[in-house]
Amino acid sequence: MTDQTVPETEADIGGATTRRRPKPAVLEVGDRKLSPSTLMMGHAFDPMLSEGSLKPPIFLTSTFVFESAAAGKRHFEGVTGKRPGGSEGLVYSRFNGPNQEILEDRLGIWDGAEDALVFSSGMSAIATMMLALVKPGDVIVHSAPLYAATETLIGRILGRLGVTWLDFPAGATEAEIEAVVARAKAQGRVALVYLESPANPTNALVDVEAVARVRDRLFADAEEAPPIAIDNTFLGPLWTRPLASGADLVVYSLTKYAGGHSDLVAGGITGSKAAIAPIRMMRNTIGTITDPHSAWMLLRSLETLELRMSRAGENAAKVCAFFRDHPKVESVGYLGFLPEDSRQADIYRRHCTGAGSTFSLYLKGGERESFAFLDALRIAKLAVSLGGTETLASCPAAMTHLSVPDARKSELGITANLVRISVGVEDAGDLIADFDQALAAV
Ligand code: PLP
What we know:
Low-confidence stretches: 1-19
CATH superfamily of the largest domain: Type I PLP-dependent aspartate aminotransferase-like (Major domain)
Bound molecules: pyridoxal-5'-phosphate
Strand order of the largest sheet: 3-9-8-7-6-4-5
């Protein structure tokens, strides 16, 4: 890296972090505010600080040289929280790094967020956030169901530390949500309201606007009000923007649509600077930041995020229309098929701009039929996960949700005839041909 800039003011001793960013960042052209897709190509990176390299190099280093002892002290004041706002410069790769910071700046753009953090996995993002917010005796209120590892984290791991939880079903009404939050408030300090929408694998949407109204009604004292966090892995960041609906923190498994090629594992959180600050401190302490190489891969992924997600969404609409009319199909759990006058459709219209590309296919029959279908697929791959360029299919009851007790499985509609499909960016006609021949084999 060639950087001849001589620090002149106190703000300049921030080092590479502050000078790495183009000054001023180009966020508009004339009156036109640039869209996230445009900004993904160059935002937060100045090629002239890296020998003119069009793309950011991968910064494989464990530590960063300070320009002066005073700069080092100032950075540590930020890292340790002595001074709010985090570090102004690069310090040590457990805290920050150029690839991760560029990625954070770009990820935040999609959600219209002030700040963002990236992590080594979706679960490390969720765990770091929860560890930062809870203490013994606290209560977490959450929507149900949650991704199985998140349920384990809340129930079994935080439970060991004296944290309890109460839940409400994903599709609950405002009154039902209010009753659960009020019960939680009577039980202890409510540390967090944690949502996942749409729920996996039922696709039920949570009314985030209603949750925010309930929180604001029940916690008039802002000091006591718990933050609302939402796992936006399934529809974000393209098809829904929960910060605009009243959430404070948005959590991602970047392994899915954001990474989008099934070749990395990473996580992210976006939100206001104030909401992110304690999570950054926890990440600095326990070291759950993503590595520079994965961060670089994600920068590349974000350049095509809108293209990939739009195509996958269009493909899913065509594939679901095919499944809906097929005689061997009982029903299709797809957000594009919600009955017009249903509460779920109302939540969808208020929160979402697209139905996504991950849905539930209910075949006529049971496990035998699901397995016959999955084993006959020739283009779609039989694998768990979602949001990649390739189409994946799996049977939640026998795979991802195998450990869920049978009673809870049937309560949540996780039946043996349910096949979960994540549609990719292949040719839609080819996918339909594959699904058609697989159904013929059932
Ligand atoms: N949240 C949801 C909704 C998920 O589906 C997953 C993984 O499948 C996770 C979180 C965990 O993400 P990761 O596997 O990146 O840790």
